[in-house]
Amino acid sequence: MNLTAQLRNFRPWNEQEERDRAALLRLLEGGQAPCGREDPAHLTASAWVVSPGRDRVLLAYHNLYNSWAWLGGHADGERDLLSVALREVREESGLEDVRPVSPDIYSVEILTVDGHEKRGRYVSSHLHLNVTFLLEADPAAPVRRKADENSAVAWFSLEEAVAASTEPWFQARIYSKLNAKLAGFPPRR
Hints:
This protein has five helices and ten strands. With 189 residues, the protein is an alpha+beta fold. Helix 1 runs antiparallel to helix 2 and helix 4 (158-164) runs antiparallel to helix 5 (168-181). The two termini are 30 Å apart.
């Protein structure tokens, strides 16, 4: 299923998701949703990686944001954002066995990114047109950091995951929401 169809089928959780979904659909249906990171707004995919018991969340300590955060990255021309999310989790965490809890979109967000330095070059402020997927992995599986992007990778309880972030907006509006939505996905034992 293509991204536009996935977004049409997505049922928003709250007003933020409804407004961001509508904006993403307008861009996609108008042929204006850029995939390349050179555009001032571009597609990204994130993952809320949970344990089979739905009581743990995998986070990485992102060097750029100096905060514990979800995993994910730029689409870079790819339109299959679930594949992007899976690839990014594997690259950023070293996990080999990570799988979707559902192939459907879990959440949508339009996120601001302040201008910053990356690999010695300035990156202008921009927007991430983000789609999030709910993924699952075994907390006993080995993880490793990706030195050019993060300083650590670790599992947290649901509450610890929200508290570990140093970004108040993400704590209140994104990570808390992602945890609350887990109620619709029963644990696997």
